[in-house]
Amino acid sequence: MRFSKFFIPTLKEAPSEAEITSHRLMLRAGMIRKLSSGIYSYLPLGLMAIRKVENIIREEMNRVGAQEVLLPLVQPAELWKTSGRWHRYGKELLRLKDRHNREHCLGPTHEEVITNLVRYEVRSYRDLPLNLYQIHTKFRDEIRPRFGLMRCREFIMKDGYSFDIDDEAAEETYKIMYEAYERIFDRCGLVFRVVEAETGTIGGSFSHEFMAVSDVGEDTIVYCKNCSYAANIERAEVKNYSISEEKQRPIKEVYTPGYKTVEEVTSFLNVGPERIVKTILYLSDGKPLAALVRGDHEINESKLLRLLGCESLNLAPPDVIKEITGADVGFAGPVGINIKIVADNAIKGMRNFISGANRTDYHFMNINPGRDFKVEIFGDIRFIKEGDLCPKCGGELEFKRGIEVGHVFKLGTKYSKALRATYLDKRGKEQYIVMGCYGIGVGRTLAAIIEQNHDEHGIIFPLSVAPFSIYLLPIDLKDPEILNTAEKIYKKLRERGFDVLYDDRDVSPGIKFKDADLIGIPIRITLGRYLKEGKIEIRLRRSGETRIIPLNELELTLEKIFKYGTH
RNA sequence: CGGGACGUGGCGCAGCCUGGUAGCGCACCUGCAUGGGGCGCAGGUGGUCGCAGGUUCAAAUCCUGUCGUCCCGACCA
User: Fold this and answer.
1) What is the CATH number of the domain that holds A443?
2) What is the mean pLDDT of residues A498-510?
């Protein structure tokens, strides 16, 4: 590609709205432009990089026997009502009506459509297993899109769905897909970790997330320094709990005028937050519930939801809190309230703690579980925090930020049951198909690659996803020798199948160097002062390593670089 | 949804407090010059100051509303 003909509007300065590196660099390199919040156009250079990532995904999917399909973006409401997600998915599902006033939505994911497709075509165990995937645009009406391609409303996703005859076969498919995912992100040049994860609205029994390690990641991942345990903080189990040996003291009411938060109460009573118990009131499937966690712990609603096995869980509104406790918000406690109490495991071992007295401006001191109130369920309902130990081996844990680039779910029969996707087994008996689902955020993967591969001058593309592998940079096109050689090299390299970006612009060398660095093409060939001696310069973007070589050794040198990499 | 900020040429910003000629850098155009890191000189194009209403002799500037964008959180996953 000739730079002068290429639609690549590079920017010296990035728009102020771009906060993180990948977003700034993608804008500056002329890869993307924003149309509106969370909605982007892909320019040629950006699309080329996207395609590179997609093709890695395609190769690895095809290698494990998955087949590519393309499913509709606009989906009828009926299908979503059947699965129950029309009501459950919430505002992220963009709903629209057609001219006949029929309800539709833009697909945020495609379990319904694919299951619907398969249920009509699969009759017998002989038709299984089946593994289908697609790469196309999804729409999720995110509450807060941010960070460029990192969290968009409209985004490119690879989503795959597997269909197996039973759990065992599904398990095997899951493993194969998991390994394919590892190969994909390896080939993309990402530093990543696989963690146990929450399943969210997709549902299913368990899942793993593929997390690109990055400080700008929106998730926190926890992993053990000692063993292989790794989990999303949403999911990470807490197993270490201590039991206090303190003697029980008589309960005592104290006047705490206006002191509501843990912070206020600790400073007023001059105690540590670990002496306090927070009482959080919820409506669980509409019924009131008190959840207890220690003052220095944070409640994890996903864990609570899972423990309760309920459909909905919402914080109780202030008027309900007042009704239950008989006090203003901020003075709730477990003693003397007449609703179901669920407590974190840590509460079990606590003695003489402080909590609200269910009376405005009062707290109780020296509360003891069992003696002063009864807990219906003890369980792990809090977030893990720094200092907690590995639930597997008791080792020390590390906390890092991660970008969720891939997510694999074992769905089981959630959708096949809802949409009645069945087959006849060998004995002629009807069985539900066992499903799995596998997603990769393509744009987000590209953003993660740039987050992990850049310097102060710009992007440093790994060869595997670089939109071009070679940047041909003639210093001065008015010098006939340089011009002729550049044209010759460009022609020859293209004939040899190399993808070359030829900077044939009549601009100062500085501009070309800056753009070359910004765009991040792995190999730069510079034609300039050494040409008089029949030599050219080859420079690697990543290492900065520069070699001056005779012109006739160019192809040999390139072959070596492609063989041994650009590091 | 709560909190905060912003909207002035394609991009980055100043001007607003204290109302009175719309300004700077980059980009762009022309010419000259230059050719190893966003190079120099000279000249030039382009903005009803997000939109609507109000106050005023006069509004980018003050007031009200509205739309959009970004950040933090909540929510969602």
Assistant:
1) 3.30.930.10
2) 95
| CA of residue A195 relative to chain centroid, distance | 11
**How remote is the C-alpha of A252 from its chain's centroid?**
48
- Return positions of chain B under 7 A from a protein CB: 1, 11-13, 25-27, 34-39, 68-77
Nucleotide closest to residue A539 (CA–C1'): B36
Local confidence band at A89 (pLDDT 50, 70, 90 cut-offs): confident
Going by C-beta distance under 8 Å and a sequence separation of 6 or more, which residues neighbour residue A82? A112, A418, A419
DSSP A86-107: HHHSGGGS-EEE-TT--EEEE-
A423 and A303, same structural domain?
Answer: no
Q: CA-CA distance, A1 to A468, in Å (whole number)?
A: 9
What CATH number should be reported for the domain holding residue A293? 3.90.960.10
Instruction: Tell the burial category of A486 from Cβ atoms under 10 Å away from its Cβ (0-12, 13-18, 19+).
Output: buried
Whether residues A59 and A155 fall in one domain:
yes
Nucleotide nearest to A14 (CA to C1'): B11
The model's confidence at residue A319, banded by pLDDT at 50, 70 and 90, is: confident
Q: Residue A32 pLDDT > 90, yes or no?
A: yes
- Contact criterion met (CB below 8 Å) for A362 and A257: no
Beta bridge partners of A506: none
Q: Look up the protein residue whose alpha carbon has the minimum distance to the C1' of B39.
A: A508
Range of the domain at A261: 252-379
